What does this fold into?
Amino acid sequence: MSGGHAHGGSAAAHHRWRLAISFALISGFFAVELITGLVSGSLALISDAGHMAADVVTLGAALVATCIATRPDTTGRRTFGSYRAEVFASGIAVLVMLGVAVYIVIEAVQRADHATAPVLQAMLLVGALGLIVNLVCLALLHSVAGESLNVKGAYLEVLGDTLGSVGVIAAALLIEATGDSRWDTVIALAIALFVAVRALLLGREVLAVLGQHAPAGMKPREILAALEGLDGVAEVHDVHVWQLTSGMNVATAHLVRAGDAAGDPLAAATALLRDRFGIAHATIQVETTPGTDCEGADW
It folds into this structure.
């Protein structure tokens, strides 16, 4: 039962305060940018506001997921807890990012034949303010983005929005220098492309976790060979390794004990998986008769 296991919590849960501060800053600025974009008529500003809205949704989902992931299981049915909630939150981030990219492209196509000159002063002011807000959030999330897929989704959202703010400023300066308002649309499409690419890359990671692939950088064959090299182990089979959520790797394995083995290889195998491969939760079945059929699962 899940209540019998003491976990230190997922990686994202330890950095919830960073998500909370970022969520407050982004939410506060979103309304300002959206209103200014609608009033000024800047597609780059509106697209960045749309991406900012995606930030709000993504950061909010990430925050909620960290709370759900650490909630005690009162049903007795969630034997692995609710840690996968953070992976689902990352999936939401992917969908929102792709939705924003599609919206920007559609809006750009519709405006292609009748581009209007936006209010440049508003673009510069809001773009600069948005850049400051996003840089603060990036500083909060950057150092821990590699520890959690959930935080990484939020970080990529903020990174995309940071480039969006740079794009807004660049669009305003280019329009002012050239007098061509089509730069507003060009910059908006560039933002959409960047957002879509980052979303697809993150989506691939999310699918790898949900598909129970081996964690990135971890090779099951190396784990198998290391277990086979332990004293007292004659054979190893049924090795499975996957990621429950960021920072929580899980493995199962069947060890066949050598006939002349003096001790039990269980402790050595557990220590090996924990210390060498970073797998803190391993379920190991020790079999005592080499050469016989495994009595485990039949699939």
Notes: Strands lie at 233-245, 248-257, 281-287.
